[in-house]
From TrEMBL:
Residues 17-130 form the Epoxide hydrolase N-terminal domain. InterPro entries: AB_hydrolase_fold, Epox_hydrolase-like, Epoxide_hydro_N, Epoxide_hydrolase. Belongs to the peptidase S33 family. This is Alpha/Beta hydrolase protein. It comes from Rhodofomes roseus. Keywords: Hydrolase. Pfam families: EHN (PF06441).
Length: 404
């Protein structure tokens, strides 16, 4: 078994060891579908190769090259890498008595004073985003005794190897957050307390936990799309922030169509993208290419898309959108809703190539901001793009706010 796999002695529910192993039949089916799936004809739009948010989306050339690489791609190597970290599942009981199996990757410390920190992914992300950071941790702290933290990286309900939301009722961000709290309670952190970190949907999970559970002691985010608050003037915004606001305007104008589809027609897009792996690659690949400062390798993108395809989780991963956009949406941004205000230590890492980066002065209105750092590089997938930055920021933040 991998190092850092000793579950804390205070755990109330013993998690099960988990090994990722996709059935060979499923793998061969994916390979066959990738090979047989056609790529649409060339058009003026898909012959453009810009990564600009204002342009037309994925290029045919990139998709064609990615398909050729996918035909040779070895998922078993990805599995081996995932399984080099301790993987677990833990049964979590909900209010209605249903039990959900929640998957998570963890590095557990044997230091009694270790700080529990949970990291939450978004869409089209997964726990894979945080593996580079965990790799850095293993190099920095080479034994469980030296590790000053418990790092827990769950798969949210409906993603990867966690159970899916129920089919007989709606499911919200707060529902997922409740299960994440009970996961952390089950691991024994209900009494000691825990710190949370997230971007994208993960930032919503963090904010829900912070505003509803006493055990959540501090929150660090790298995503906080909120409207300009009253009483904040342009003189409170620096030049880098002003430039980033223009990127947010471009996204709202030309980059948000996918989110409206998720929000208003989740059934349709879920069925469409479950019919062809190449269609799924185009849909998700575009996001990794245009939402990042420097795009990840094609192999990294294929790992993420393969995970969605092999677990059949695209349709169950987009439930949060209908509560943020479209006719069923809340009228106020989730981050700006008074009931979601963070009334405890709040930290934020700002990255210029975020989709909707807002100024520090706007972020500060949504919580008790006590720690802030502005980076000059990095985009929406911060943990994947800048694992060193997120790890360093979290260590600084926790040192400032955690009290045993």
């Amino acid at each position: 078994m991998a190092l850092f796999d000793t579950v804390p002695t205070g755990a109330k529910i013993q998690p099960y060891n988990y090994t990722v192993s996709i059935p060979e039949e499923k793998l061969q089916q994916m390979k066959q579908l990738v090979t047989l799936s056609p790529i649409g004809p060339a058009t003026w739009e898909n012959l453009q190769e810009s990564r600009d948010l204002n342009d037309f989306g994925i290029s045919r050339k990139w998709l064609d090259n990615a398909k050729a690489e996918w035909e040779k791609y070895d998922w078993r190597a990805t599995e081996q890498h995932i399984n080099s970290f301790p993987n677990f599942t833990l049964p979590v009981k909900d209010d209605d008595g249903r039990v959900y199996s929640i998957h998570f990757v963890a590095l557990f410390s044997t230091n009694p004073a270790a700080v529990p920190i949970a990291f939450f992914h978004g869409w089209p992300g997964s726990f894979l985003e945080f593996l580079p950071m965990l790799e850095l941790l293993k190099r920095k702290y080479q034994t469980p005794e030296q590790l000053p933290y418990h790092f827990i990286v769950p798969s949210l309900p409906g993603f990867a190897f966690s159970d899916r939301p129920p089919k007989d009722k709606d499911w919200t961000t707060h529902d997922s957050a409740r299960l994440m709290h009970r996961l952390l309670e089950g691991l024994g952190f209900g009494e000691t307390g825990y710190v949370v970190q997230g971007g994208d949907i993960g930032s919503l999970i963090c904010r829900s936990l912070a505003s509803r559970y006493e055990a959540c002691k501090a929150v660090h985010l790298n995503f906080c799309p909120a409207p300009k608050p009253d009483g904040v003037s342009n003189s409170d915004i620096d030049e880098l922030e002003l430039k980033a606001l223009q990127r947010g305007d471009a996204f709202r104008t030309a980059g948000i169509a996918y989110a409206l589809e998720h929000a208003t027609r989740p059934s349709t897009i879920g069925l469409v993208l479950s019919a062809s792996p190449i269609a799924l690659l185009a849909w998700i690949g575009e996001k990794f290419l245009t939402w990042t400062d420097e795009p990840p390798s094609t192999t990294t993108i294929l790992e993420s898309v393969s995970l969605y395809w092999l677990t059949d989780t695209f349709p169950t991963s987009i439930y949060t959108y209908r509560h943020g956009l479209g006719p069923r949406a809340d009228k106020i941004s989730f981050h700006a809703q008074p009931e979601n205000h963070i009334n405890k230590p709040f930290g934020f890492s700002w990255f210029p190539q975020e989709l909707m980066p807002v100024p520090k002065a706007w972020i500060a209105v949504t919580g008790d901001l006590v720690w802030y750092k502005q980076h000059t590089r990095g985009g929406h997938f911060a943990a994947l793009e800048r694992p060193d930055a997120i790890l360093g920021d979290m260590e600084d933040f926790v040192a400032k706010v955690w009290q045993n």
